[in-house]
Amino acid sequence: MTNSTELRLRMLQAAEIQLAASGNDISTRAVCEAVGVGQPVLYRLFGDKAGLMSALVDHGYDRFIERKRHLAKTDDPVADLRAGWNDHIAFAVENPAIYRLMFSPTLGPQISAPRALLDLLTGTLERCAQAGVLLVSPALAAQRIRAACTGVALAILSRPDLYTDPDLSDSVRDSVFAGCIGASVQLPPDRRLGGTAVQLAALLREGPASVLGAEEQRLLLKWLDALGG
Amino acid sequence: MTNSTELRLRMLQAAEIQLAASGNDISTRAVCEAVGVGQPVLYRLFGDKAGLMSALVDHGYDRFIERKRHLAKTDDPVADLRAGWNDHIAFAVENPAIYRLMFSPTLGPQISAPRALLDLLTGTLERCAQAGVLLVSPALAAQRIRAACTGVALAILSRPDLYTDPDLSDSVRDSVFAGCIGASVQLPPDRRLGGTAVQLAALLREGPASVLGAEEQRLLLKWLDALGG
DNA sequence: CCCGCTGACGTAACATCGATACGTGACCAA
DNA sequence: TTGGTCACGTATCGATGTTACGTCAGCGGG
Asked: What sign does the CA torsion over A167, A168, A172, A175 have?
């Protein structure tokens, strides 16, 4: 006989497949059909369609937290922090539909798993605080990091046509980290070079210089754009 | 006779009210009932429920862009940038349901309004670039700022119980800005171009860039020297 | 004045979906 | 065998998105 928890898992997997296929919504009928049971079993196991969705989100959080546990915990908490951000983005890209359910929920009954996940982040940040590199309390830093990280992830997921910068995640991550972590991250020389190139390009576009010809300026602007990234 | 566009507007307003009330979903029947028309008019005006939703989102973007136009454009582009971020957050808090529709869309047919809004941000950033305070290209900076800003807004909207820091928005804003904006060195405009060229030439001579070939850099340096005086 | 046409509207229906009442059969203890 | 409990499926209800069809106002021509 199929155990109740096993059936529950099979329905969750079926629901997850349907969600990934349709993108944002599923049908209880289709889920039951895929598993080969009637609809009442769904309502006995999950009580409600919202219950099924909540279970789906919880299942996603389970997988996410499990994944985070497998991340190596090194003796450099800041490096762990960076790895955690990157893993967050990777999870979002690999599971777009569930990620949206997890981190862009509708108003309504809240789930407790996000709190646990935020506490996990706070734990890493407390190790940073013990290392003496944190500028603010771990709780505040966790909110900033999580908010910015989900923003980047949702942006990449929802509008890949608008958010085309391959370094978007790394850039925002470094900026937010720099605002929370005191360890001075000096700008590499090529960064300053890029900034200067961007500035010069803007100035040239505003008012072209007279010492250079039109064609030369066109090529110059092209190179400056390349230098600016 | 009620004009067609006026009827359209009334239905949009009714839909917006219902959306704000229910939080995340509306019923075509309820919208038509509220306006006092049959359902076929909705399908004649919007073609589809998705069409109604898209029109709702477009309407939200219209209001948002109109609001941004009324923001004073001062001679300090960085201050304008900060005001724009704060206005974004304020709009999200004042219109949570529509904001979610606008900035956390489901997969599917994309709307063009977000692009226009991102271009508006890019415009302000180009003014920053002309002032010489931008470290990266306006397009890249716009992506970082918009992604982080929507992340903060969605976090505050979706989980106010988790994101309790009243300074969350300001903190993330300042961090992200710090990653895109350098210390401004205000020089008279006519001298800024030459000075920037000299600075870029010095940086290039100190450490050549990898994105340009040797011959290209030689010519670039020649032009930069010409620009510098 | 009457007739036919067009365009907009409402009524009523269909398909689908979430949710549930009820009957049926398996299994178990006495 | 009998009575009871539990899980399941069938059939159904109410609501919702969507559409076919009839109806009516307005209008130009005979």
From this structure: positive
A26-62 burial, b for 16+ CB within 10 Å, e for fewer? bebeebbeebebeeebbeebbeebeebbbbbbebbbe
pTM equals 0.83
Has residue A166 been placed in a domain?
A: yes
Residue B195 is predicted with a pLDDT of: 65
Higher pLDDT, B208 or B98: B98
Domain-embedded: residue B35? no
* Strand D proximal to B29 Cβ, under 7 A: yes
Fill in the DSSP letter of residue B27.
-
Q: How many domains does chain A have?
A: 1
How many angstroms separate the CA atoms of B37 and B7, rounded?
A: 10
Q: Give CA torsion, residues B37, B43, B48, B52, to 10 deg.
A: -50
Which letter does DSSP use for residue A105 in this model?
P
List the single protein residue with the shortest CA to C1' distance from D20.
Answer: B40
Q: Is the pLDDT of residue B185 over 70?
A: no
Q: Is residue B122 part of a domain?
A: yes
CA distance B147 to chain A (A): 5
Domain that holds residue B159: 72-228
Does the nearest atom of strand D lie within 7 Å of B45's Cβ? Answer: no
Query: What distance in Å separates the CA atoms of residue A59 and residue A227, rounded to the nearest whole number?
Result: 45
Taking residues A48-73, what's their average pLDDT? 92
Please say whether the beta carbons of A177 and A79 come within 8 A: no
